[in-house]
Design brief:
Structural class: alpha/beta
Bound molecules: pyridoxal-5'-phosphate
Oligomer: single chain
Shape: globular
Number of domains: 2
Strand content: 5-15%
Number of helices: 12
Helix content: 25-40%
Length: about 325
């Protein structure tokens, strides 16, 4: 079991007193990585089966992504959104070209950095749409979510987590969320009322094990939300961008959500890049001054994000995920 033993020469960040103890990593100190492999400070190689919780869908240091980043480092890295830059619109166009056909309605995108920020953005956009378009009374909007969810670590997001470790000690919590059992479309339908603006779910849950919902669940959720004029927000930060052998997990289930949150692999394992892609009549409610981010849509992020989208536009990562999925599944079953 060399995998889990400590070594005297290992810097051992896990036992350092200057590092907040909010993680308990395996005793492996990585020094370099390439493709599916990482090498530790003592020269041992490991097959990386975690893949940065799916931030590394294309492997470590994919040559096309690293090249895009290096090239951009020599040009411009940050403008803030107070100015335009020459990659913002190309990235927005490429991402909406890729993901737009997989969501309902005319698409638009809004760039952020982390997955949690993309989820927060979707929550804000859904609420604003609910008040301005649906006529929900001020500050009364509700959003239906599922137990066992993982949508990030901000105070609003942990407000509707059902994991005691994620919540305990961090109240008071943000109101306006209703938790129903994951995989139960009838319970979800029953939780929707005239205050409900959105249903926020992972098409495949990814935090407490990989939880694939029962057959027909995702399409039933789409039918229920369409009938109630409630937004279906698919958190595809982990399930999206090739993971399921399709560009989105929603696509795999044959469902077009109203808003999709993307993150993790959108930054190619190089830097945090996230986005919300979806209905322009919803995202268009976030007008100047109502939402933003200093680093969201920065030139370096757009350069890498654009290269990621170009990679996915070939369909090759999705095809490889399918092939490897079948190969691994068959051999592990055997
Ligand atoms: C990882 C994850 C997030 C949060 O992303 P961060 O970049 O860590 O903020 C949100 N939703 C899902 C489904 C995730 O897996």
């Amino acid at each position: 079991m060399t995998l889990l033993t400590t070594d005297a020469t290992t810097p051992a960040a896990h036992s350092s007193s200057v590092l907040a103890p909010n993680y308990h990593p395996l005793h492996v100190t990585v020094a370099s990585a390439e493709g599916s492999w990482v090498t530790d400070v003592d020269g041992r190689r490991y097959l990386d089966l975690l893949a940065g919780y799916s931030a590394l869908n294309f492997g470590h240091r994919h040559p096309a992504l690293v090249a895009a980043a290096k090239d951009q480092l020599d040009r411009v890295t940050l403008t803030s959104r107070a100015f335009d830059h020459d990659l913002l619109l190309p990235f927005a166009r490429a991402l909406t070209d890729l993901v737009g056909p997989l969501v309902a309605g005319e698409p638009m995108m809004l760039p952020m950095n982390t997955g949690a920020e993309a989820v927060e953005t979707a929550i804000k956009a859904a609420r604003k749409w609910g008040y301005e378009v649906k006529g929900v009374p001020a500050d009364r909007a509700t959003i239906v979510v599922a137990d066992g969810n993982f949508h990030g670590r901000t105070t609003t997001i942990v407000s509707f987590s059902t994991d005691p470790d994620a919540r305990t000690g961090f109240g008071p919590f943000t109101p306006g969320f209703r938790v129903v059992p994951y995989g139960d479309a009838a319970a979800l339908e029953a939780a929707i009322d005239e205050t409900t603006v959105a249903v926020l779910l992972e098409p495949i849950q990814g935090e407490q094990g990989v939880v694939v919902p029962p057959d027909g669940y995702w399409s039933a959720v789409r039918a229920v939300t369409t009938a109630a004029d409630v937004l279906l927000v698919a958190d595809e930060v982990q399930s999206g961008l090739g993971r399921t052998g399709t560009t989105l997990a929603s696509e795999y289930f044959g469902v077009r959500p109203d808003l999709v949150t993307l993150g993790k692999a959108l930054g190619g394992g190089i830097l945090p890049v996230s986005a919300v892609v979806g209905r322009a009549d919803v995202l268009g409610r976030l007008t100047a001054g109502t939402h933003g981010s200093t680093f969201g849509g920065n030139p370096l992020a757009c350069a890498v994000g654009l290269a990621v989208v170009e990679l996915l536009a070939t369909g090759e990562p999705q095809r490889l995920a399918q092939v490897r999925g079948e190969q691994l599944g068959a051999r592990l079953d055997a």
